[in-house]
Amino acid sequence: MARLGGPLIWLLVAGPFTRADPLVMEAKPTLAQNSPAEPAQKKTSESPAVTTPADPPATPPPPPNNGGIVLTPDQKRAREAFQAGKWEEALQILEAAAKTTPNNPMPPKVLLARWCAESGQLAQARSWLEQAARDDPKHPEVFLTNGHFAFLEGRITDTILNCQAALDVLDTPRWEAAYKQQVRLQARLGLAAAYEARQDYLNAYTQLREILQADPRNARLRQRLARLLFLLHRTEEALQQWQQAQRDDPTLEPAELQLAQLYTVRHEFDQAEAWFQKAVTSHGQDVRVRRLFAVFLLEQGRIKEARSHLEAVQRLEPDSRDTRALTGYFARQERDYSTAIKIFEDLVRDYPSFPFALVNLALLLAENGDGRGKERAIALAENYVRQQPMHADARAVLAYTLLQAGREAEAERVARSALGLTLLSPDGAYFLAKVLQARGASDEARTLVQAALNNKAPMFYRQEAEELARKLVPDPASPKKNAPPSSSDSKNKKQP
């Protein structure tokens, strides 16, 4: 089921937490993928229900690391072989190394599963993981990795069960104390993320509180704890925790800024603006405050007010990637397409994996480019899908660029592959609706575009979506498709 999230501008927003969707600039891009979007195996005639959560998406569990240790020299050699396509050689290296350290906390096939997932080869990743489970069914890394894969696929209950299983199998002298501590940390982080995705904020809070008791100076975890307190409507406690986190790590975003962003995600815009103003008053020279306030005002359509904060950002960090990206987005908002294309072309050249630049340049070229430009837009969108293969929004952008290039059948195939995924922005829903409308699936298109318009999140393509919605209003005079003939029709029909 596609779940509507925030607007595409969130690709540019550095949130107070690592979001579960791809729509964040400064949360580091997730696993770099190398495969195109997987087509849907089956075409369904029924449009999915699309929900619009009132609260921000959950923080994803961190990808399980290499058993809490850096790669060994043997593992590095194996990874080089894997990257060269020599999977069997990689496995042989890992298995030979494992024989010398039988209690190595990282099973070879689990490591191969993770590397496959990182490169977008999800089916092969699952195959390696199943083999690892057969070889050592009670290994904690099997459960942690399976839980992480489940979370990425939206299987929250499976995530919880796997993380709990990882904790349960630690009660054995097989593992050293340091490794047990690392597994407990990873498992509780996974449980916290899963409960948060289920909107069971109290259980998520309980898991993080357990971790903080063992590591009270972990400012980033305290930051996440504060966010959960906010979601539990314990705002004063949340503010205190944010302030403590900032004292422990002054590089974190100011507490006022984090509250402003969370109120924005909750669509409580008056409260959000009040906290943005407090953040500017107390931290006016913090470029993050200025940049995010500019984004907030831009989302509200208040371009003139936003420009003063953009100018402050340009003074504070004139040459930074994020400043250039925000400048390009301003140009696109003001329909100065040539300037926007130039800025995003430069950004993609300098930062080939930067999601915000990839998406904006793909959309600009798809809508304004010539034939070659439209094909390049598709290539850029495919790059984005390789980075985010499990996110509906990435596939929605790709489907839209295919539609703009006249490749409608391919566009529909990719669009339908997005419908079963999560994390779809209102703009992404519009892209999918556009594709489905072009392919004659008007009912599904109508469901998607109405869900997008009903969402309170800012939307770049709102006017276009409203126009599409008007076109999709059913004509009461036209007969319904596949409707049975009326009795009067049967009576009037000539008999042979």
UniProtKB/TrEMBL annotation:
Low complexity bias: start-end ranges: 479-489
Keywords attached to this entry: Repeat, TPR repeat
Taxonomic superkingdom: Bacteria
TPR repeat feature ranges: 185-218
Pfam families: TPR_16, TPR_19, TPR_4
SMART domains, per database record: TPR
Region Disordered, annotated ranges: 28-71, 470-496
Chain intervals with Pro residues compositional bias: 54-65
One Gene Ontology term of the molecular function aspect: identical protein binding
Full protein name: Tetratricopeptide repeat protein
Species this protein is from: Thermogemmata fonticola
Taxonomic placement: Bacteria, Pseudomonadati, Planctomycetota, Planctomycetia, Gemmatales
